Amino acid sequence: MASGGIHVSLKAEPIHKFGGFVVTNSIIYGILCAMLLGGILLYASKRTKVRPGASKFTVVIEMVMEFIINLLQGPFGSREKAAKYAPYFGSFFLFILFSNLMGILPIVGPAIHVDGIPLFRPLTADLNGTIAMSITAIVLVQILSIKEQGAKGHLKHYFSDKPWNPINFFIGILEVFGEATRVLSLSLRLFLNTAVGEILIAVFTSMIAPDGMTPIAVIPIWLFEMLVAGIQAYVFTILTGTYLGLAIQHADHGEDHDVHHSPAVPKTKVESVAKV
After folding, report:
1. How much is the pLDDT for 50?
2. Considering the entire predicted model, what is its pTM?
């Protein structure tokens, strides 16, 4: 690959150092994506109007948020909880999707470089970046679970109602250990899919034809990577949402128990709640 002029690196490369802190090309890219995505969403929030005055741009953003809410409705079992937690998990979805799609642009890679090192590298193509995102997601799940049902209810998710039973305690330890494996699986899945896509794009872009470079050969790979970008954002979001849905199932069961033993609610009220 080196002889063919293809720049392929499985790790982020340093661009600058501030004391003992190394700034890599993936960090620069991640900050840039976060700023651009934040600006787009702030702009969309200010342009949001009551229909029919809404612009096409804000309508698209609203459709994306509606998709995220519908996506989370399955793991949480209710639209109310899905809408409640959509800002958290929607942030992961939008950032991963936006970061992966931006990574297809020609400015990402060797086109813009500093001393031969690409200035921009997708954050999701850096294992450190995907591990950081996965740890953030799993820690967020723990925090939201504790806020939803309290520390005692959260511990029941791991150790059941009788934690000092040897079998329950052993199973609980395995469940806690499983949280670490979730970090590993989330980070590796996201990293490998994006890194392999970067390699494929670099290889196909550098294919040689009689008249020179043939970047047109990379178009099918670009289309495929756009599909993979959406799938990876979907998988990461649905998995983390499912983790939280499983963690708060005890609180949900408690709510169901209260509903079953509560006085009958008038039909008109039930219909109004269903409409909401």
Report:
1. 53
2. 0.79
